[in-house]
Fold this sequence. Notes:
The complex is a heterodimer.
Chain A: H1 35-56, E1 86-91, H2 99-109, E2 112-117, H3 121-130, E3 139-144, H4 148-153, E4 157-158, H5 170-173, E5 181-193, H6 194-200, H7 208-211, E6 220-223, H8 229-242, H9 253-263, E7 267-269, H10 272-279, E8 291-295, H11 298-302, E9 315-332, H12 338-348, H13 351-361, E10 364-365, H14 374-379, H15 391-409
Chain B: H1 3-33, H2 42-49, H3 51-84, E1 85-86, H4 90-96, H5 99-102, H6 105-116, H7 130-154, H8 158-166, H9 171-199, H10 203-208, H11 216-226, H12 230-258, H13 267-270, E2 272-273, H14 276-305, H15 316-321, H16 334-364, H17 373-378, H18 383-389, H19 409-420, H20 427-437, H21 451-473, H22 477-485, H23 490-519, H24 535-543, H25 548-574
Parallel strand pairs in B: 1-2
Helix pairs in contact in B: 1-12, 1-16, 1-20, 2-12, 3-7, 3-9, 3-14, 4-25, 6-14, 7-9, 7-23, 8-9, 9-12, 9-21, 11-12, 12-19, 14-25, 16-19, 16-21, 16-23, 21-23, 22-23, 23-25, 24-25
Amino acid sequence: MPSPAPRPASTAGPVPAPGPAAGPAADPDPTRRRRPRRAAVVVALLTTLVMVLAACSSPADDDAGDAEVGPALSTPEGGVFPDGTTVRLLAHDSFAVSEEVLDQFTQSTNVEVELVLGGDAVTLVNQAVLTAGNPQGDVLFGVDGNTLTRAVEADIFESYEPEGLADIDPAFTADAGGVVTPVDYGDVCVNYDRTWFEDEGLALPTGFEDLVDPAYRDLLVVQDPSSSSPGLAFLLGTIAEMGGGDVTGDDAPWLDYWRQLQDNGVQVADSWSTAYYTDFSGSEGQGPRPLVVSYASSPPAEVTDPSIPVDEAPTGTVVDTCYRQVEYAGILRGTTERGAAEALIDFMISVPFQEDVPEQMYVYPVNDEAALPEVFETFTAEVSDPLTVPPAEVAANTERWVQQWAGIFR
Amino acid sequence: MSARWRWGLAALPLAFLGVFFVWPVTAIVVRGLRPEGQWDLSPIADVVTDPVIRRVAWFTLWQAVASTVLTLLVGLPGAALFARYSFTGKRVIWAALVVPFVLPTVVVGIAFLGVIGPTGVLGLDLSGTVWAILIAHVFFNYAVVVRTVGGFWASLDPDVVDAARVLGAPPWRTFLEVTWPLLRPAVAAAASIVFLFTFTSFGVVLVLGGTRHRTLEVEIYEQTTQFLALDVAAGLALVQLVFVVATLAWFARTQERRAVALRPRSAAETARPVRGWRARAFLAANLAVMAVLLVLPLGVLVVRSFRVPGGGWGTDFYRALSTNPRGSTSFVAPVEAIANSLLFASGATVVAVVLGALAAWAIAGGAGRNGDPAAVEVGSADPAAVEVASADRGRDRGTSRGRPLRRGPGAWRWVDTALMIPLGTSAVTVGFGFLIALDEPPLDLRDSLWLIPLAHAIVALPFVIRLVVPALRAIDPALREAAGTLGASPWRVWREVDLPVVGRALAAAAGFAFAVSLGEFGATVFLVQVDRPTLPVAIYRFLGRPGPLEFGQAMALSTILMALTVVVVLVIDRLRPAGASEF
């Protein structure tokens, strides 16, 4: 390859000795002498670039948990904490909140919130179980019905009853047991591509029985329940609907239903992203299948520009297939900032945080007082009777259910 | 080099491996097998006798072998092209080869399904078949073969080949009997890396393999992250380890036996312009392979990043990247993600190159052979000569008197193998191990910024060792002896003889290390991210949300990540030590 870039005229500097190919005599290739300098320049430029970029990005504060500051056991007078109080919020990678809302919390309590985001919700809880008693943060957000029992049995939380619990529908607190606090809920449902069904002249599916009807052959994509949380939610929904969760053999009604789904050409993707963006026809991926397991909040998200008035979102929800998942937050056992952690939990169920939840995380507030953003109000289908399976049953049986399911699909 | 020197060099890399790999992995395995403080080895027995696991293990093994063989078949012609010809755009393509390395699997899944999926441009739906997995593995590992073997090949002395041709050997015989024996260490190095990568393949198998194809890695991941069944996971991890160690030990042996001393030449001397119809056809065929294998799937991503929601084309997605309409904490400014990625990757590269180089020099042991290298090379077709070439196994090659060493190469083979094992261990095992092992002061690194580059360096370290060791072993000891005779100090010999020769290998290794770190996602998600999201993390966040704008932004960020990779690797390729040969 020809030599790149013209070189500058000779410069003083360390002259390297001849390379190995040359004898001890003169260097046959004078251009070599300046290569170390050029390399040094490139290194210097690259280092500078990285340093400048690092300077642009946020500095990491390492002064959390000062040794002098003992554990605050309760909320101080007036709810204002001493300067430098930081509470660490462990959450899964889908967690999001407006900077503005977090600032409100900091202004009223003087507590800085440090976000520590891990992997998905299940991994997050398992990390917390492994590090029980020596936690990586003070508050954990993202326990749901599928992980709640495991978390409680591993004793990773300190019990807490927040202020403002009165505004929350008791249905949401039923499973929390005074240990964790419900923050939001979401429904996992079959979504349809409205345009596709209109173009084909096929009636929109109304429930589970349509999905196994030959008229809807090869239209549905679901997620593998062993690797995907909505996939597991949909599986639990079929168990709640069809029954037979206590049957250990392979003649449970819900397993029969899955065999019918298989006969009807259901496709199983590894994750929500693959199913929604590669197989589903109703989103940007423009895949081949018009039915996908997703969320009740997905249709509002598909409304590209809320400023353009439309009657319907391009996708819709089959409400009879919806399985409800509640997400909880709890104070991690071993926290050194108990008071600030309590204040953060109180804040998470207060109206400002609750009203922020839909647009940030595509889930719905548990607080009755919180108003929904317009696009969610308009385009979320009413789920009057969501399916559920009690957390204790989920914990006791999930592994077996997934294995039974795998017996059909592997 | 004396034994004491060698162990001295190896001390730091081995200590690093001990603290950041052996200890965490041991901790998590012990946690699985000693649930109540009592050893319970039944999970291992359960795993070994489980018919399902046997099937999974068998599939894991055969798909890895098939992927490795396929990658070599497709990649070796590419290596030959880069080693022997110069053509326009060579440098950029050479750098761009590593792009697949940096993309998150889910993005590669989208790219591939856009080509061989249900609505793919080829009109051929391979999703869910084993072919999809194999093709994706070739896509990911093509660069390993081309850059590892090609770099080594480029420094081979063409005079040997010319001599064989002059003596009347036809081209195929020249290749089989002269070039191939010389290339074997580099091919073995590339093959071992590809094998480990594909043996522990996880994302590709999940995204493209459907529900029926599962590897041990997928099982370990599921048992650990979904069910927290640490006992089963530990049993599986040990099974995986046995396979990996057995493979590596075998590779280490072949590599020792095949090293042949030669006089490395500058690549500029060995590459020639493409002339004649044979050479043109060869270039065209290779470029066609790269177009179908690399450009087509990656092109899918680029094209989608320039779509506009609702139809048409434009840069809307790119413009949206720097706006945060909802004022969200989950928003990552692209510049920030790029900065974080570069920062971590630079750190990981420096650590991996320094430690890997130390280890490589220790493993190669300043090895060399006496005798006329040219005679050995041309005669290497002759078994007797190979005998000569390997006659000094079992002795300390560094001492000219050939004193037997107390610890023979056997010990070094194990050091070599040990340093390679991280490539064949599941990220989730290491990640969870970190959590429970490195959680006490003075080593509570769980949320230290250092943990990410260190974790990446563990994965990148084997690359450096595999690329540098063959280059070192190929140095003709006559060069070192001549320099020594002329009065050069050992340090100077190292600087003037060793460093220039392995410069290209080091640069290539650094390129891989950088790419591995830039795209690493498996371990990163287990190590908490305090406000320091990298590009893959940001891409993943976009893809986890519904909405056309989110998807488009993920594609745009992926395209930026690809461009960034090409630029950085181009720069690294230019950063050779003084006197190193160049393309």
